[in-house]
Amino acid sequence: MINFNSSESDGDDPGPLSEINVVPLVDVMLVLLVIFIITAPLLTHSVKIDLPRAASNPNITKRGSIQLAIDGAGVVFWNGEAADRVEINRRLEASATLDPQPELHIHADGATPYKRVAEVLSDAAKAGIVRIGFVTDPHL
């Protein structure tokens, strides 16, 4: 009588092994899962800003744009007029409802703390302003 079960063979010729070892496949899949779990949150935290492209010619400022300046001490000026954060937020919310929505041009001094610029950007995004640009000196 011939025994076809390789585990019960008498050791002469066990025959081909028909079982698949899935342990390496599971290891690779677990590593990929960990990589995706770690990288997925990093891809969702981005700041969406519509910045103008660099050009050799200066951009022409459209009428009705908002000139928001931040000096080195962190004081914010709305079209040349100093305003506190509550007033800036009120004006940003009012400007976001206009049609067409005005562009927000940010003039930040080189000594301005990044935290203050980030607060202004966050406030503008919360208000619904979608067109934001940074103004720089082209003669550097």
Explain what you see.
This protein is 34% helix and 14% strand. It has 140 residues and is of the alpha/beta class. The protein has a domain of 69 residues: 2-Layer Sandwich (Nucleotidyltransferase, domain 5). It has a 5-stranded mixed beta sheet with strand order 3-2-1-4-5. Strand 4, helix 3 and strand 5 form a beta-alpha-beta unit. Helix 2 packs parallel to helix 3. The longest helix is centred in the first third of the chain and has 22 residues. About 6% of the residues have low confidence.
How are the SSEs ordered, and which strands pair?
Layout: H1 23-44, E1 66-70, E2 76-78, E3 81-83, H2 85-96, E4 104-108, H3 114-127, E5 132-134
Parallel strand pairs: 1-4, 4-5
Antiparallel strand pairs: 1-2, 2-3
Helix pairs in contact: 2-3
